Amino acid sequence: MKNTQVLLARRPVGRPVQEDFRVIESEVPPIRDGEALLENQFISLDAGFRNWMNEDAGDEVLPAMSIDEPVMGLVAATVAESKREDLTPGQVIVGRTAWEAFSIAGPGELMTPVQSKYGLSANYYLGVMGDTGLSAYFGLDRVAAVKSGETVLISAAGGAVGNAAGQIAKAMGAGRVVGFAGSEEKCRWLEEEVGYDATINYKEGDLDQLIQETCPDGIDVYFDNVGGDLLEPVLNHINYGARIPFCGAVADYATEQGTGPSNLFRLVANCSRLEGFMTHYWMDDYESARDILAGWLDDGSLKNFETRYPGVESCGQAYEDLFAGKNFGKAIVVV
Ligand SMILES: NC(=O)c1ccc[n+]([C@@H]2O[C@H](COP(=O)([O-])OP(=O)(O)OC[C@H]3O[C@@H](n4cnc5c(N)ncnc54)[C@H](OP(=O)(O)O)[C@@H]3O)[C@@H](O)[C@H]2O)c1
Q1: Of the candidates 234, 187, 230, the residue with the CA atom closest to the CA atom of residue 215
Q2: pLDDT above 90 for 62
């Protein structure tokens, strides 16, 4: 059986581009005892995985990706054949394998069955019901503990985590939800379709003034997906006791030199807290969180927005587009 795989052809410098990746055809090897063959349905494009494309990026969370090996990625897949006791053919799972049409799940590799009780298709488990939605939920619930009526500002608001965070903040009772996005078109979409109260195109204008205008009562929660220079003007507008769940640093993934604010004392003066988090440390709470997210999907307060790309071959283009901000919602490849 033929496989299509996307390899890491070279280590990206700065923003990833299509040429950093190479598509090959290969044979799917027969599975051995303890393995299962997965037929991938959807591949998730995740900004955070850019970090593990760097040399020596391996850490206790994930190994660094290797050159000429399939690019590591999250997939939603159907089990095609199994010699693993915990997986049966026909089962739908979500797991970390690679950008490829078929994957082999090795012994003990974590493959999470999709819960049929919600009646949702597999792509949801890469979007609002997956790491994406769960990151938005845990950041707002566990780290920020959003309170009714508060003003929540979100960076990369039109991205996968960001659009979910905006909707979830509203569902939690935030009084005003404001987002940073990189184009006028994305800002309009956020306000007209996703439900943001206001947006700021962070590439244009005087950010201090725009934050003042869109967050007139100051910022209680800044859900930060981006890091970098945006944090500085935000800190000038935080309220006493503000919380900053620090979800990711897209601005720094693709730069040689990290950037950051020069006014961190604003945190001290406002008795505020900036706290990083990794969603997978709450794995034991995924099911209870998904019950809540499913409730919001049911009552219409949460929607799963996606930008879809056709075929495994398009992974490289989709990943380039992600860093150019072309995705509206979750970037996903339909295999
Ligand atoms: N902590 C965790 O456990 C966890 C789990 C999942 C994801 N994350 C993090 O969540 C963040 C979002 O990830 P995602 O996969 O959902 O990606 P995404 O938000 O769908 O895509 C990235 C977005 O970032 C924006 N962007 C790119 N470069 C930027 C820059 N220099 N400054 C400001 N914005 C920039 C772009 O939108 P614009 O059009 O607005 O520029 C782009 O659409 C990442 O930092 C990721 O690492 C964390």
Answers
A1: 234
A2: no
Q: What average pLDDT does the segment 100-109 reach?
A: 96
The torsion angles phi and psi of 264, rounded to 5 degrees, stand at -60, -20
Residue for token digits 């008795």? 271
* DSSP alpha helix (H) spans, 40-191: 131-138, 160-171, 184-189
- Give the Cα separation of 211 and 87 in Å (integer): 50
Question: N- to C-terminal Cα distance for the chain?
Answer: 16
pTM for the model stands at: 0.95
Question: Does ligand 1 have an atom closer than 6 angstroms to the CB of 225?
Answer: yes
> Domain coordinates of the chain in residue numbers?
2-127+307-334, 131-280
DSSP SS3 for 254: coil
Does ligand 1 come within 6 angstroms of the Cβ of 51? no
In the three-class reduction of DSSP (H, G, I as helix; E, B as strand; rest coil), residue 244 is classed as: strand
> pLDDT tens digit string along 237-275?
999 999 999 999 998 887 877 788 999 999 999 999 999
Topology of the domain comprising 2-127+307-334: Quinone Oxidoreductase; Chain A, domain 1 (3.90.180)
- What CATH number is given for 131-280 in this structure? 3.40.50.720
> What is the per-residue pLDDT for 255?
80
Residue 199 CB contacts under 8 Å (≥ 6 apart), including other chains:
157, 178, 179, 180, 181, 186, 187, 190, 191, 214
**Ligand 1 pocket, 52 CB below 6 A?**
no
| Best residue among 141, 161, 274 to mutate for probing ligand 1, ranked by most atoms within 8 Å of CB | 161
At 61, is the pLDDT very low, low, confident or very high (cuts 50, 70, 90)? confident
> Which distant-in-sequence residues (6+ apart) come within 8 Å of 115 by Cβ?
287, 290
Q: Are strands 102-105 and 198-201 parallel, antiparallel or unpaired?
A: unpaired
